[in-house]
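hey m, so remember when u said the tokens were messed up on ur end? i reran from scratch. heres the input so u can diff it against urs
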Amino acid sequence: MCYTNINDNKRENVRKDFIRDDFPRKRKGLGKMIYVISDIHGCYRSYLKMLEKLGVRESDTVYVLGDTIDRGRNGIKVLQDMMMRPNIIPILGNHEYMAAHALDSLADAARAADLMPTPELKKKLIKWFSDSGASTLLAYRKLSPEEKREVLDYLSEFSLYEEVRAGGKDYLLMHAAPKTGGREMSSYSPEELLFNHSLPEENPFPGKILVTGHTPTFLFGDQYRGKIVISENGDHICLDAGAGYGENLAAVCLNTGWQYYVSTKDDPALN
């Protein structure tokens, strides 16, 4: 990973005062809440604990920034639970994208029927089969034909990004940020929005607060292990706190800025 050589100056550009957890839920008067979770990676029990911890109501909305599957064994269970909750909005991650290719559902899951896998993506698919995707593929094969179709249909509903306004601020939610901005969002290919690793201080969309997953925050420095990381000026929230690596599943409330954590260390999906 390119983050092994992060220098001290870049580390100093990350806010250290925004690590907050377990705020009291004084729900009266707060209205509809918007939460964001990312990179569940098959940790089904931790995912359920997080929903309970958030106290999600029917009037609230939960955005999931992709990578619900792989690494942990229970990604299919996560998907099946999410599809039953109308207030959960799924956003495509690179693992769902690779899985959809591997499951012959490129057109639906990638929303790009006219795009064929590039040689680079084919390499990623081979890795998916032999590495973190194996447990997902095994669970998928155990489904009935109807259940398989439901999962593939649900994957086809995943969007590449969502634009949200909360607390008087404009947010752009996506799995991973592209290398460059200055273009209409509709012009980006799925691969541009799914596979790139970016630093907290990198936001190609000025005027919006970027919320991404994809890159475990321990790659920014060990002091950020298991934590949400936010850029110095607050315009990029990095949400992957390493759930798939036995660290934490993290969530943020966009209305309040409150952060929530559930440890995945003992999640049976990883053990």
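this time it looks ok to me. DSSP finds eight helices and ten strands in the chain. if urs says something different then somethings off w ur setup not the seq
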